[in-house]
């Protein structure tokens, strides 16, 4: 969080799922650039995922569906992949 502040930004850290929505709203409402540190359990699969030591264009997209029945890998279309 100090890194964000050193560059004139706003740092947010969230490790409690119950506080995640509020932290995201804080990020959205901030007029400054934000570094958002969202801590998750080591065992969680958070997609898209960039493996250690890999470049951003080597990210892994999920192939499994989420609770709503949407294939997560289909959320990011070809145009979106160009942005990352």
What is the tally of helical segments? Answer: 3
How large is the radius of gyration? 15 Å
Main sheet makeup = 2 strands, parallel
- Reading side by side through the largest sheet, how are the strands ordered? 1-2
Q: What is the total tally of β strands?
A: 2
Order of helices and strands: HEHEH
What structural class do the secondary elements suggest?
Answer: alpha+beta
Uncertain segments are: none
Principal-axes geometry comes out as globular
Which percent range describes the beta-strand content?
5-15%
The overall number of domains is 2
Describe this structure in words.
By secondary structure, the chain is of the alpha+beta class. It folds into two domains: 1-41, no CATH class; 45-84, no CATH class. Helices cover 25% and strands 12% of the residues. The protein contains three helices and two strands, in the order H-E-H-E-H. The chain has helices at residues 2-6, 20-29, 78-83, and strands at 10-14, 34-38. The longest helix is centred in the N-terminal third of the chain and has 10 residues, at 20-29. The radius of gyration is 15 Å and the shape is globular.
